[in-house]
Amino acid sequence: MPIQIVPREKTTPGFNVLILLLSLLSGLIAVGIIFLTYGINPFFAIFEIFRSSFGSSFGFKETLTKAIPLILIGSGLALAYKAKFWNIGAESQLLWGAIAATWVGLNWGPFMPGYVILPLMFIAGFMGGAIWGIIPAVFKVKFGINEVISTLMLNYIAAEFVKFLVVGPWKGATKYGYPYTDDLPEQAILKLLNMSRISLPLLILAVAVALILSFIVYRTRFGYEVRVIGENSEAGKYAGIDFFRTTVLMMAISGGVAGLAGVGELTAIHHHLSYPETISAGYGFTAIIVAWLGRLNPAFSILSGLFFAGIIVGGDAIQMSMGLPATTVNVFNGLILVFLIMGDFLLSHRVQYKRRIR
User: Fold this and answer.
1) Of 232, 292, 333, whose CA–CA distance to 77 is shortest?
2) Is the pTM of this model over 0.85?
3) In the chain, is it the N or the C terminus that has fewer CB atoms within a 10 Å radius of its CB?
4) What CA–CA distance (Å, rounded) separates 61 from 193?
């Protein structure tokens, strides 16, 4: 054929930035077409999204609130995706972090001071998410089970288990029959900044985790092994990298970080365990796009997490003011992810035209 798609040998930083900007612009154009079908001026709608999330004090505070779990989960997913382990189960890992923290908070919280119980809850949440992340890692390495399927299915198991807990054995005696656990004791609740839902320690934790994971990926032997596995797993095995150990540890970290996000939502926002869609506003899925927009660099998840948090807040605002469907934000995020993946493909491939020789 005269037109062929061939691997691209090398790219420059400037070209990478150009492709990223073009991908975002193409996504926004596609979103604008969706707005046009509803008879809405796309320029005004997109302007309103970012004005609502970044142009007011209340909107920016809400954006920061929603950015915290996105930064945490997105940085953990970036680590897994570096090894081409497609973890789609961050939503369930977040829920298991919330489950573990709830048990510790309700059972031990009344007898311990805050400076003891809160760290214990975060440790328990990390372990809960880590164990749930290790399961698909073992399935893939030992049994060859596709991680996309296993992590996706584990989301449903975790969600149904949370529902079982809040309507069954953990149903709160003080909640008048509603499907919630009892509230955490006061010492197990994170303090918030005035006139906001932002927990400053949680925000610092999210940024620190993203920076630490970036350091691990690019400055440690373990990070090097993760990158080698992602680039060529067979070459990694030939070089003596322990594929099982590296994959399990990588998914323990990725799942554990998502578990921390679950603890944060529990201790700072909700103060009790409830239905899965209440604990997480789809953060585990949105964080997939956060990781891709950050070019799989955990540190860049800080900016991309803030960006998509703004889309969530702004999308909710125009949903109410313009009468758009509740799925508007999901459509917005999905289109941007599609164009980011297309841009990623163009970074590694190029179109080549070959003249026919008579």
Assistant:
1) 292
2) yes
3) C
4) 10
